[in-house]
């Protein structure tokens, strides 16, 4: 890499010298013509490794041009190759596709090895590298042979077929590639996700085609079949997502994003001692945007810290106002996976509580179980420090992820919130009732308070009370309200 850097640096200096010496040309037109020819030749030389044509060079530039030609020849042949697998890399793929344009037939296929990082985590990077090399060999040996195979990054591979592939062919292709590998006498299974673009329907320039196949792969990640095709309206969805990401900081600054608060009912007293803070966004052009849409985009764009810090400030500032007005509440706020990755999160929470002069028990942090399970050890370390402050902790949406009740004993939380999905079939389905009741009993025997979300009818409320639930949250008791509206309803909620 160091030698390549020296070559590239030398090229830059030489090209700069060419621009300085432009003054020696007789006219601006001749300068432009020569530079255009030079740029074309340089690009062609990089792609096909051909020599430069000395015939177009003015006499005074011949020595400089010879030096430039030799430096270009010294560039490694592997510039467009992936060192690990020997396949074409992203740069080589784009160059090759560009040389084949226009492409109005065939299929572009993008393959992702699902959760490949777990292979590295479990067995080490050497093991993972062997898997990638074996996967590349398997791609090269396919009976349905693509014209072009490239490795784009760690676990993504791109294939170009000159023919239009049917769904049956793609299913067969995936089945062939998912046959378990044997690495150091260890069987390794992989699951693949595949995005496709039919170029006869959606041909475009190289960058556009790669962007579209990437959109198709994103759809495949949320598809049960794990295979998805680019469709015309996918561009519209991506533009919407980009607009949301771009607008989010302004939305926070201009109060387009705001908090509403949903009261929780304490079963023992019938009163409200807790509320959950929920984010809302009324975009001036896109309308109402749900947290389920913009929070994942904020995480993807690396802006979740901005959102979480804003949410904590909003909640604690409101808490300070309520306490000054005699309203004593614990307010719960949701944090994300990325928040738990921050080693300074406990200190930041402590600093904010001190700034707003609030006791730690006035704040509850809710974390989804999928967030906890992503890195249980690290999450527990962070949560231990937060709980040591006196801040209450809750597992949100319990039962909807991939954890089990066995993990509960490891978690330093005060409360388990059971997701409303458990209530869907409660009235007609006895097994659902048994599972819900068992979950409540185990959580309570482990010392946790239990809250159930999504209560909409008196019948469901009464059945949950009979099961021993501590707190209920849902439209039956109270809808989400702005702070001022909650203040107006405080006497009713608290039975004053």
TrEMBL record:
<dbReference type="Pfam" id="PF00990">
    <property type="entry name" value="GGDEF"/>
</dbReference>
<feature type="domain" description="EAL">
    <location>
        <begin position="241"/>
        <end position="494"/>
    </location>
</feature>
<dbReference type="GO" id="GO:0052621">
    <property type="term" value="F:diguanylate cyclase activity"/>
</dbReference>
<dbReference type="InterPro" id="IPR000160">
    <property type="entry name" value="GGDEF_dom"/>
</dbReference>
<dbReference type="GO" id="GO:0071111">
    <property type="term" value="F:cyclic-guanylate-specific phosphodiesterase activity"/>
</dbReference>
<keyword id="KW-0378">Hydrolase</keyword>
<dbReference type="InterPro" id="IPR029787">
    <property type="entry name" value="Nucleotide_cyclase"/>
</dbReference>
<feature type="domain" description="GGDEF">
    <location>
        <begin position="104"/>
        <end position="232"/>
    </location>
</feature>
<dbReference type="InterPro" id="IPR043128">
    <property type="entry name" value="Rev_trsase/Diguanyl_cyclase"/>
</dbReference>
<dbReference type="InterPro" id="IPR035919">
    <property type="entry name" value="EAL_sf"/>
</dbReference>
<dbReference type="InterPro" id="IPR001633">
    <property type="entry name" value="EAL_dom"/>
</dbReference>
<keyword id="KW-0548">Nucleotidyltransferase</keyword>
<dbReference type="InterPro" id="IPR050706">
    <property type="entry name" value="Cyclic-di-GMP_PDE-like"/>
</dbReference>
<keyword id="KW-0808">Transferase</keyword>
<protein>
    <submittedName>
        <fullName>Bifunctional diguanylate cyclase/phosphodiesterase</fullName>
        <ecNumber>2.7.7.65</ecNumber>
        <ecNumber>3.1.4.52</ecNumber>
    </submittedName>
</protein>
<dbReference type="Pfam" id="PF00563">
    <property type="entry name" value="EAL"/>
</dbReference>
């Amino acid at each position: 890499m160091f030698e390549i850097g020296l070559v590239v640096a030398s090229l830059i200096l030489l090209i700069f010298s060419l621009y300085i010496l432009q003054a020696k040309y007789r006219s601006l037109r001749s300068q432009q013509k020569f530079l255009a020819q030079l740029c074309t030749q340089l690009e062609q030389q990089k792609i096909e490794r051909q020599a430069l044509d000395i015939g177009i060079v003015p006499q005074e530039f011949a020595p400089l041009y010879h030096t430039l030609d030799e430096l270009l020849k010294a560039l490694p042949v592997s510039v467009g190759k992936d060192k690990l697998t020997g396949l074409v890399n992203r740069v080589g793929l784009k160059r090759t596709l560009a040389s084949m344009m226009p492409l109005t037939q065939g299929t572009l296929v993008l393959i992702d090895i699902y959760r490949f990082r777990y292979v590295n985590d479990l067995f080490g990077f050497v093991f993972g590298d062997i898997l990638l090399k074996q996967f590349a060999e398997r791609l090269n040996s396919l009976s349905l042979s693509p014209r072009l195979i490239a490795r784009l990054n760690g676990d993504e591979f791109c294939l170009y077929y000159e023919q239009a592939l049917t769904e049956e062919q793609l299913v067969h292709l995936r089945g062939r590639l998912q046959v378990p590998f044997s690495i150091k006498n260890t069987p390794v299974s992989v699951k693949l996700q595949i995005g496709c673009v039919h170029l006869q329907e959606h041909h475009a320039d190289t960058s556009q085609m790669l962007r579209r196949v990437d959109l198709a792969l994103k759809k495949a990640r949320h598809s049960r079949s794990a295979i998805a095709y680019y469709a015309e309206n996918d561009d519209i969805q991506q533009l919407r997502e980009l607009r949301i990401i771009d607008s989010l900081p302004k939305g926070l600054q201009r109060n387009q994003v705001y908090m509403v608060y949903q009261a929780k009912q304490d079963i023992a007293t019938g009163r409200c001692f807790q509320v959950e803070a929920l984010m809302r966004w009324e975009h001036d052009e896109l309308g109402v945007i749900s947290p389920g849409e913009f929070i994942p985009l904020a995480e993807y764009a690396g802006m979740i810290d901005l959102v979480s810090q804003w949410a904590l400030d909003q909640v604690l500032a409101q808490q300070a106002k309520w306490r000054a007005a005699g309203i004593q509440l614990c307010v719960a706020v949701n944090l994300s996976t990325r928040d738990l990755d921050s080693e300074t999160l406990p200190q930041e929470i402590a600093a904010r509580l001190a700034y707003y002069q609030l006791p730690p028990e006035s704040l509850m942090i809710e974390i989804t179980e999928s967030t906890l399970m992503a890195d249980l050890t690290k999450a527990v370390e962070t949560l231990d420090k937060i709980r040591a402050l006196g801040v209450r902790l809750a597992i949100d949406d319990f039962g909807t992820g991939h954890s089990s009740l066995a993990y509960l004993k490891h978690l330093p939380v005060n409360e388990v919130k059971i997701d409303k999905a458990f209530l869907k079939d409660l009235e007609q389905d006895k097994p659902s009732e048994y599972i819900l009741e068992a979950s409540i009993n185990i959580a309570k025997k482990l010392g946790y308070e239990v809250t159930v979300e999504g209560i909409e009818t008196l019948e469901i409320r009464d059945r949950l009370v009979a099961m021993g639930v501590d707190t209920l949250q849902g439209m039956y008791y109270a809808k989400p309200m702005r702070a001022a509206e909650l203040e107006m309803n405080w006497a009713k909620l608290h039975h004053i």
